[in-house]
Hints:
This protein has helices at about 1-25, 40-55, 55-65, 70-80, 90-100, 100-115, 120-130, 140-150, 150-160. The protein is an all-alpha fold. It folds into two domains: about 1-100, no CATH class; about 105-160, no CATH class. The radius of gyration is 24 Å and the shape is extended. The protein starts with a helix and ends in a 7-residue tail after the last helix.
Amino acid sequence: MEEEREGEKKKLKSLGEEQESHKYWMKRVELPTFEGVDPMGWIARAEKFFKIQNISSKEKLCLAIISMEGGANHWFRFWKRKVKNPSCEDLIEALIRRFWGKERSFFFEKLATLRQSGGVEEYVQEFEVLVSQTSEVSEEQLLGYFFASLRSEIRSQIRPHNRTY
Length: 165
Protein backbone atom coordinates (compact mmCIF):
# COMPACT_ATOMS: atom_id res chain seq x y z
CA MET A 1 0.00 0.00 0.00
CA GLU A 2 2.81 2.40 0.92
CA GLU A 3 4.67 1.46 -2.25
CA GLU A 4 1.58 2.29 -4.34
CA ARG A 5 1.38 5.77 -2.76
CA GLU A 6 5.05 6.38 -3.46
CA GLY A 7 4.56 5.22 -7.02
CA GLU A 8 1.63 7.62 -7.47
CA LYS A 9 3.66 10.49 -5.96
CA LYS A 10 6.48 9.79 -8.40
CA LYS A 11 4.04 9.73 -11.32
CA LEU A 12 2.52 13.06 -10.24
CA LYS A 13 5.95 14.60 -9.76
CA SER A 14 7.04 13.33 -13.18
CA LEU A 15 3.85 14.68 -14.76
CA GLY A 16 4.38 18.06 -13.11
CA GLU A 17 7.97 18.23 -14.36
CA GLU A 18 6.80 17.24 -17.86
CA GLN A 19 4.17 19.99 -17.84
CA GLU A 20 6.73 22.50 -16.58
CA SER A 21 9.18 21.62 -19.37
CA HIS A 22 6.27 21.77 -21.85
CA LYS A 23 5.83 25.45 -20.98
CA TYR A 24 9.35 26.28 -22.09
CA TRP A 25 9.03 25.09 -25.65
CA MET A 26 5.52 26.42 -26.29
CA LYS A 27 5.28 29.75 -28.08
CA ARG A 28 3.33 32.34 -26.18
CA VAL A 29 0.25 33.20 -28.22
CA GLU A 30 -1.44 36.58 -27.86
CA LEU A 31 -4.51 38.06 -29.48
CA PRO A 32 -3.28 40.75 -31.87
CA THR A 33 -4.62 44.28 -31.68
CA PHE A 34 -6.70 45.61 -34.56
CA GLU A 35 -6.25 49.22 -35.68
CA GLY A 36 -8.22 49.05 -38.92
CA VAL A 37 -5.44 47.74 -41.16
CA ASP A 38 -5.43 44.29 -42.83
CA PRO A 39 -8.72 42.97 -41.46
CA MET A 40 -8.33 39.61 -43.22
CA GLY A 41 -4.93 39.07 -41.61
CA TRP A 42 -6.26 40.08 -38.19
CA ILE A 43 -9.26 37.77 -38.53
CA ALA A 44 -7.01 34.83 -39.49
CA ARG A 45 -4.66 35.45 -36.53
CA ALA A 46 -7.58 35.96 -34.13
CA GLU A 47 -9.20 32.70 -35.27
CA LYS A 48 -5.90 30.86 -34.65
CA PHE A 49 -5.71 32.42 -31.19
CA PHE A 50 -9.31 31.45 -30.38
CA LYS A 51 -8.72 27.87 -31.53
CA ILE A 52 -5.43 27.43 -29.63
CA GLN A 53 -6.88 28.94 -26.47
CA ASN A 54 -10.18 27.04 -26.88
CA ILE A 55 -12.24 30.24 -26.55
CA SER A 56 -16.04 29.98 -26.51
CA SER A 57 -18.20 31.95 -28.94
CA LYS A 58 -19.35 34.38 -26.22
CA GLU A 59 -15.77 35.02 -25.12
CA LYS A 60 -14.60 35.67 -28.69
CA LEU A 61 -16.62 38.87 -28.99
CA CYS A 62 -15.44 40.14 -25.60
CA LEU A 63 -11.81 39.49 -26.50
CA ALA A 64 -12.25 41.07 -29.92
CA ILE A 65 -13.60 44.21 -28.22
CA ILE A 66 -10.48 44.44 -26.07
CA SER A 67 -8.22 44.15 -29.12
CA MET A 68 -9.71 47.17 -30.95
CA GLU A 69 -7.49 50.26 -30.96
CA GLY A 70 -7.39 53.67 -32.64
CA GLY A 71 -9.92 54.33 -35.37
CA ALA A 72 -11.12 50.74 -35.25
CA ASN A 73 -12.08 51.21 -31.60
CA HIS A 74 -14.14 54.33 -32.43
CA TRP A 75 -15.83 52.55 -35.31
CA PHE A 76 -16.49 49.50 -33.10
CA ARG A 77 -18.21 51.55 -30.36
CA PHE A 78 -20.47 53.10 -33.01
CA TRP A 79 -21.18 49.70 -34.61
CA LYS A 80 -21.99 48.07 -31.27
CA ARG A 81 -24.63 50.72 -30.49
CA LYS A 82 -26.35 50.00 -33.83
CA VAL A 83 -26.39 46.19 -33.61
CA LYS A 84 -28.63 44.37 -31.16
CA ASN A 85 -27.04 41.27 -29.57
CA PRO A 86 -23.97 41.17 -31.83
CA SER A 87 -22.13 37.90 -32.33
CA CYS A 88 -18.51 37.33 -33.27
CA GLU A 89 -19.69 36.37 -36.78
CA ASP A 90 -21.57 39.69 -37.04
CA LEU A 91 -18.39 41.51 -36.04
CA ILE A 92 -16.30 39.67 -38.64
CA GLU A 93 -18.80 40.52 -41.40
CA ALA A 94 -18.88 44.17 -40.32
CA LEU A 95 -15.06 44.36 -40.09
CA ILE A 96 -14.73 43.02 -43.62
CA ARG A 97 -17.35 45.42 -44.98
CA ARG A 98 -15.86 48.44 -43.21
CA PHE A 99 -12.12 47.88 -43.35
CA TRP A 100 -11.59 45.66 -46.38
CA GLY A 101 -13.95 47.44 -48.77
CA LYS A 102 -11.29 49.64 -50.39
CA GLU A 103 -8.59 46.97 -50.34
CA ARG A 104 -10.97 44.44 -51.85
CA SER A 105 -11.16 46.21 -55.20
CA PHE A 106 -7.40 46.64 -55.09
CA PHE A 107 -7.08 42.90 -54.50
CA PHE A 108 -8.37 42.06 -57.98
CA GLU A 109 -6.26 44.80 -59.53
CA LYS A 110 -3.17 43.49 -57.74
CA LEU A 111 -3.94 39.93 -58.72
CA ALA A 112 -4.50 40.87 -62.37
CA THR A 113 -1.31 42.95 -62.57
CA LEU A 114 0.98 40.71 -60.54
CA ARG A 115 4.01 39.62 -62.57
CA GLN A 116 6.91 37.40 -61.67
CA SER A 117 9.97 39.61 -61.49
CA GLY A 118 12.27 37.57 -59.26
CA GLY A 119 12.54 33.90 -58.46
CA VAL A 120 9.65 31.45 -58.54
CA GLU A 121 9.55 31.09 -54.74
CA GLU A 122 9.29 34.87 -54.30
CA TYR A 123 6.48 34.99 -56.86
CA VAL A 124 4.63 32.10 -55.21
CA GLN A 125 4.80 33.90 -51.85
CA GLU A 126 3.43 37.14 -53.34
CA PHE A 127 0.65 35.18 -55.02
CA GLU A 128 -0.23 33.31 -51.81
CA VAL A 129 -0.45 36.57 -49.85
CA LEU A 130 -2.95 37.90 -52.36
CA VAL A 131 -5.11 34.79 -52.69
CA SER A 132 -5.26 34.27 -48.93
CA GLN A 133 -7.34 37.44 -48.75
CA THR A 134 -10.38 36.04 -50.52
CA SER A 135 -12.37 32.88 -51.00
CA GLU A 136 -14.44 34.33 -53.84
CA VAL A 137 -12.15 33.28 -56.69
CA SER A 138 -12.50 29.78 -58.10
CA GLU A 139 -9.51 27.46 -58.29
CA GLU A 140 -9.67 27.58 -62.09
CA GLN A 141 -9.47 31.38 -62.05
CA LEU A 142 -6.58 31.30 -59.59
CA LEU A 143 -4.67 28.92 -61.83
CA GLY A 144 -5.28 31.28 -64.74
CA TYR A 145 -3.95 34.26 -62.77
CA PHE A 146 -1.02 32.21 -61.52
CA PHE A 147 0.12 30.96 -64.93
CA ALA A 148 -0.53 34.26 -66.71
CA SER A 149 1.75 36.07 -64.26
CA LEU A 150 4.69 33.68 -64.58
CA ARG A 151 7.56 34.55 -66.86
CA SER A 152 6.94 32.98 -70.27
CA GLU A 153 9.95 30.64 -70.16
CA ILE A 154 8.79 29.18 -66.83
CA ARG A 155 5.15 29.04 -67.90
CA SER A 156 6.07 27.02 -71.00
CA GLN A 157 7.95 24.52 -68.81
CA ILE A 158 5.11 24.08 -66.34
CA ARG A 159 2.07 24.07 -68.61
CA PRO A 160 2.74 20.72 -70.35
CA HIS A 161 2.89 19.07 -66.90
CA ASN A 162 -0.37 20.59 -65.70
CA ARG A 163 -3.15 18.66 -67.42
CA THR A 164 -5.95 20.50 -65.55
CA TYR A 165 -5.08 23.86 -67.07
